[in-house]
Design brief:
There is one protein chain. With 143 residues, the chain is of the alpha+beta class. Helices cover 20% and strands 46% of the residues. The chain contains two helices and eight strands, in the order H-H-E-E-E-E-E-E-E-E. Strands 1-2-3-4-5-6-7-8 form an eight-stranded antiparallel β-barrel. The relative contact order is 0.20.
Amino acid sequence: MRGKLITFNFLVVLLIFFVSGANAADMVPEYLVGNWVIGTTEQKCGDSGSEYFMFHENGTFAAGRSNRPEAVGFWQIDGDMVNLDFISSGGFFQDIHAELKEYANEFDYFKVKLIPFNVEENRFEAVGLLGEQINKGIAVRCK
């Protein structure tokens, strides 16, 4: 069963690579710099509970909710992918996952690869790869 799941995930990623083609190549560092609201559905900037990414020109970023950073790290565009290397603590999410309260002073390192597609002027979709997890999301630029 695990082998079939890995094969399916690989095929999904492969399909995204073929679909993303020219769009992903359009993503340059200047495009990504700024504030973005993210989610599994299209959200609006300023919505309560919205998650944000703030990409800075110097290759650093912060991500969080309500102007409160929950993850900080570095970003880099490499071909058709955006690489994110960051630290975060499960304790930051205790408001939505009470069982994570005990991790308030523990930080972990994460590495995520984003595969962008449907890149538009102020919006893009991406598939994120974190270990064996694959998630799809939408990002909309905040003005």
